[in-house]
TrEMBL record:
Pfam families: NUDIX. It comes from the Bacteria. This is 8-oxo-dGTP pyrophosphatase MutT (NUDIX family). PANTHER family: ADP-RIBOSE PYROPHOSPHATASE, DIHYDRONEOPTERIN TRIPHOSPHATE DIPHOSPHATASE. CDD domains: NUDIX_Hydrolase (cd03674). Belongs to the Nudix hydrolase family. Residues 46-182 form the Nudix hydrolase domain. Gene3D superfamilies: Nucleoside Triphosphate Pyrophosphohydrolase. SUPFAM superfamilies: Nudix (SSF55811).
């Protein structure tokens, strides 16, 4: 069964139960979700959902990709597909697609998102996309595996970064990737 707006609302509510101080930051996406509108579709330019993965290896390194479209290091992630059945599974799919890591070697650190970010995406006329907003819902995972072949159409590279360096590059969401900090 495909991901529904209710599934997305449920994930955001669970996240806000864990991080209530972020309610103001997520007020607009919660308002949009309450109105409905198939936010899984990347054709919904009021807002659509993306899924991200913070993958930790050995409790000391986080896997980041060099994002082709944005030109910066980020956690693996991307748009939902009609075949995705959960946000968690979508995050694993994106992780595997972009980094070639074997999904069987990836274990969720939590079934609740560890970060949710709502942000403006600039227009990309070459793709027929006006300015719009993403609601990026991210999950933490652990592994002992290494990456495989990267998806060169979306990323230009991938590497394991020490936690402090990853946090400097990507931001505070990295701190929530470490299972000991998730609780």
């Amino acid at each position: 069964m495909a991901i529904s707006d209710a599934d997305i609302s449920s994930a955001v509510s669970a996240y806000l139960g864990r991080y209530p101080d972020e309610a103001v930051l997520l007020a607009e996406p919660m308002r949009l979700l309450s109105e409905g509108g198939d936010f899984t579709s990347r054709e919904n330019f009021r807002m659509h959902v993306t899924a991200g993965a913070l993958l930790v290896r050995g409790g000391a390194e986080v896997l980041l990709v060099d994002h082709r479209a944005y030109g910066i290091p980020l956690q693996p992630g991307g748009h939902l597909e009609p075949t995705d059945t959960s946000l968690l599974d979508a995050a694993v799919r994106e992780l595997a697609e972009e980094t070639g890591i074997d999904p069987a070697q990836v274990v969720p650190a939590s079934r609740t998102p560890v970060y949710i970010e709502y942000g403006r995406v600039p227009a990309r006329p070459q793709k027929g996309e006006p300015e719009h907003h993403h609601l990026d819902i991210g999950y933490a995972f652990v592994t002992d595996a290494d990456m495989g072949l990267i998806q060169e159409s979306e990323v230009t590279g991938a590497a394991w970064y020490p936690l402090a360096e990853a946090e400097r590059l990507v931001g505070h969401r990295i701190a929530r990737a470490v299972p000991a900090r998730i609780g």
